[in-house]
Amino acid sequence: MERFIRPMAPGWFASVMGTAVTSLALTLASHAAADAGPALADPVALAASALHWLAIAMMSVLGIAAVYRLIRHGDAVMEQLRHPVEGSFYATFPIAMLVMAAVWTIRGVSPALIAPLWWTGALGTFAVSYVVLFGLFTSERLKLGMVTPAHFIPAVGLVVIPVAGAPLAAASEGVLRELAFALNMTGFGAGVFMYVGLLALTMARHFLGAPVEGKMTPTLWVHLAPLSVIPLSMLALLKTTGDASLLRYGSLVAAAFLGAALWWLVLAVSMTIHNRRQGKLPFALSWWAFVFPIGACSVLAYRVSELLALEVLPLVASGLTLLALFVWSATALGTVRGIRTGAIFAPAH
């Protein structure tokens, strides 16, 4: 067990994020396939449930391991947290809770059960964002060549908060309602604010720095995440107003974000294939960075197609869901192989 605990990478929780969002995409796919009959909808719903429970099991195991590691190997945790690249992945722990809260919301779980998960994830994401950003702003270790879209995770991860938090706030009462609403708006505003700055920084790396390749290739796909989650959170917040005109306007804005995400997807695929052909895409735990962005993009496609009553976009959403499931399967298989051989526990360099 110590072989896993001591060198445990913070990016392990990206596997929970990827598994949970793939479950969510499959759940929406099963709803979209309902008109085709149970022969298609039921197997999809079954796959969604399987991944849903797997995500819960993964979160439980990894959560216990992370807490144990913090107690037993606090020095190693702090060393990673101060790392200019690895430290950003610590935010995947609380963000995974927020993603699971969103899945539970769609699956109709009681708000009383969702609330503890959401509050812990939301406050944890705020805490990690402050710690990581403070470390980056007060250190000279980060150089342009080290910047990747992975640096979105701690701060831009705040935009995930309203996806499940907006309906939770709407169902609350009194002071708790106001606190939940304030947390949602603060997270959304701060996440969008930081996205603008970090987008400029990562584009500077893409244009002026060395190409993103090797184990960091999957982070190229992280651009899809904020382009998908920002409009999903915006739509969740607008829905709580009860104003149909605002929601329809928001759906047009969301469609524009979806267009940008699909545009970047083509570029990300091209760069990934290029790195693969160059032999610069070894399997690593970072492959989980492929999964969540694709899943989030498919969820946005389903949401926009529903709001605008489109007929072709659901096909695009289905294609994205299949892609997310394929990438999830390949990454999960590689992870299992890495666990069996021990290669995945090797320290990052």
Characterize the structure shown.
The protein has helices spanning 2-5, 13-32, 38-72, 74-81, 92-106, 111-137, 153-156, 161-171, 174-208, 224-239, 244-277, 288-308, 313-341. It is mainly alpha-helical and 349 residues long. Helix 9 runs antiparallel to helix 10 (224-239), helix 10 packs parallel to helix 12 (288-308) and helix 12 (288-308) runs antiparallel to helix 13 (313-341). The longest helix is centred in the N-terminal third of the chain and has 35 residues, at 38-72. The radius of gyration is 19 Å and the shape is globular.
Tell me the layout of helices and strands.
Blueprint: H1 2-5, H2 13-32, H3 38-72, H4 74-81, H5 92-106, H6 111-137, H7 153-156, H8 161-171, H9 174-208, H10 224-239, H11 244-277, H12 288-308, H13 313-341
Low-confidence stretches: none
β content, as a range? Answer: under 5%
Averaged pLDDT: 92
End-to-end Cα distance, whole Å, is 22 Å
Q: Write down the secondary-structure element order.
A: HHHHHHHHHHHHH
Number of beta strands = 0
Radius of gyration: 19 Å
> Helix/strand/pairing class, anyone?
mainly alpha
Structure, briefly:
By secondary structure, this protein is an all-alpha fold. It is 74% helix and 0% strand.
Keywords:
349 residues; mainly alpha
